From TrEMBL:
Region annotation (Disordered) ranges: 439-463
Coiled coil: none
Organism: Streptomyces griseorubens
Keywords recorded for this protein, A-Z: Cell membrane, Membrane, Transmembrane, Transmembrane helix, Transport
Designated name of the protein: Uracil permease
């Protein structure tokens, strides 16, 4: 019996190039949190480079755990792990509340260790929530993942920093558009392997085109060291403070919720649905990777949804391709020069590629919703309200400004809030009381459904 495409081992050249494509897609997301937190702490450029390399290294280790797996650890799906952005706000808050900034990173590392270990113990219980994720829920969540990521691509398209003079300039937007056009042309007019690595080729072409415009910066390559190792506890032994631990435990719950949704999404895309055992193993990899990361000066790890878009678009489903990408991440952590090569790609070029990647995730969600029975008014309502709640952080970023900071960690994640609302509404409309009745003749959410009685002599059908 032939191996499932998820377990397929491709030829080495193809494995390397497609693995590198995954790294290119998630690189900016991995390095952003250490750059932001490191700047808040006041690290020197050399220390900032070290912290960034450490996060790349630990992301690679976590990706190995997730894709290759050990014992009951790892979803064994083409699942990329990296530093979760959900922890940035709480970590910067910890920095701000620490009198001696030299203690800020040790306090963060201590909180991450505790949150990771508690999450590891909770993984098998958390995974039981999979029964509450039918297609109407998973389709909604997958769509929200794509929609929530698109603003990131739009931000990248405008430039590296909102404070820069050229942010949103015609040159930056033009480079993003050219990169997007190249990817689309490659996808339309090429075949086979070239078509599958269209995103990587588009980014290489976009980077070269950006050179005459002065947007491509090669200084990271010139300034990077050839060899470097993330020395354990480089910034000091971990410190354990209750407030910081509670804060990052909340982040861990958010991260586990998003990872569960991502695993369900990826399972649909690769046609190996994620069951309770798979989700438990995946959550163990997330949480163990997080608990081990501070040993090498890294932060909390979580699934990277943008790479799901790459799997959906290329249809390369091998987990060993992503494991190869994890190998590149480890190499970058040990070889700063290698890491700097990806850093050369201008942010607008990443933005152009991101439109394709993140849009592909949303499209996958719509495909799943097509199987969810949207001819029933109950399901239409579930999707409508869940999507509306999920896009609040995108469409009205200050909507929850009056809420406590701890609550905003959850509320400002549209994926998490949309997921929770979808699960609760599915329970209310499809499982409790008369919610399980069939409503095939009502297809619009504004119809009352009051006349949806069963034919004479027949009981309402269960869902």
């Amino acid at each position: 019996m032939a191996d499932h495409p998820v377990d397929e081992k491709l030829p080495a050249p193809k494995m390397a190039t497609t693995g590198l494509q995954h790294v290119a897609a998630m690189y900016a997301g991995v390095v952003a949190p250490p750059l932001i937190v490191g700047a808040a702490v006041g690290l020197t450029p050399a220390e900032l480079t070290f912290l960034t390399g450490a996060c790349l290294f630990t992301a690679g280790l976590a990706t190995f755990l997730q894709t290759v797996g050990v014992w009951k650890i790892g979803a064994r799906l083409p699942f990329v792990n990296g530093v979760t952005f959900a922890g940035v706000a709480p970590m910067t808050a910890i920095v701000a509340s620490t009198d001696d900034k030299k203690d800020a990173l040790p306090v963060i590392f201590g909180a991450v260790i505790v949150a990771g270990l508690l999450g590891f113990l909770a993984a098998p219980f958390f995974s039981k929530a999979v029964r509450f994720f039918p297609p109407v829920v998973t389709g909604t969540v997958i769509t929200l993942i794509g929609v929530s990521l698109l603003p990131v691509a739009f931000g990248w398209a405008q430039g590296a920093s909102p404070d820069a003079d050229d942010y949103g300039s015609a040159v930056n937007l033009g480079l993003a558009a050219i990169t997007l056009l190249i990817v689309l042309l490659l996808r339309r007019f090429t075949r086979g392997f070239v078509k599958q690595i269209a995103v990587l080729l588009g980014m290489v072409a976009g980077t070269l085109i950006a050179v005459p415009f002065g947007v491509t910066d090669f200084s990271p390559v010139a300034e990077a060291d050839l060899v470097g190792f993330p020395t354990p506890f480089h910034f000091g032994a971990p410190q354990f403070q209750l407030a910081a631990i509670v804060s990052l435990c909340v982040v861990m719950v958010v991260s586990m919720t998003e990872s569960t949704a991502d695993m369900l999404a990826l399972g649909e895309i690769v046609e190996r649905p994620a069951d309770e055992r798979t989700i438990a193993a995946g959550l163990r990899a997330d949480t163990l990777g997080s608990a081990l990361a501070p040993l090498f000066n890294g932060f909390m790890c979580s699934a990277f949804a943008q790479n799901i878009g790459l799997v959906a678009m290329t249809r390369i489903r091998s987990r060993f391709v992503v494991a190869t990408g994890g190998g590149f991440l480890v190499l970058m952590g040990l070889c700063p020069v290698a890491a700097s090569l990806i850093a050369v790609v201008p942010r607008p070029v990443l933005g152009g590629a991101g439109v394709v990647l993140f849009g592909s995730v949303a499209a996958s969600g719509i495909q799943t919703l097509a199987k969810a029975g949207l001819d029933r008014d109950n399901n239409v309502l579930i999707v409508a309200v869940s999507l509306a709640v999920g896009v609040i952080p995108i469409s009205a970023p200050e909507f929850y400004h009056a809420f406590p900071e701890t609550a905003r960690i959850v509320l400002d994640s549209g994926i998490s809030t949309g997921c929770v609302v979808a699960v609760l509404l599915n329970l209310v409309f499809n499982h409790l009381g008369r919610g399980g009745r069939e409503a095939a003749d009502v297809t619009h959410p504004m119809e009352t459904g009051e006349d949806l009685t069963a034919p004479s002599g027949k009981a309402p059908a269960a869902s």
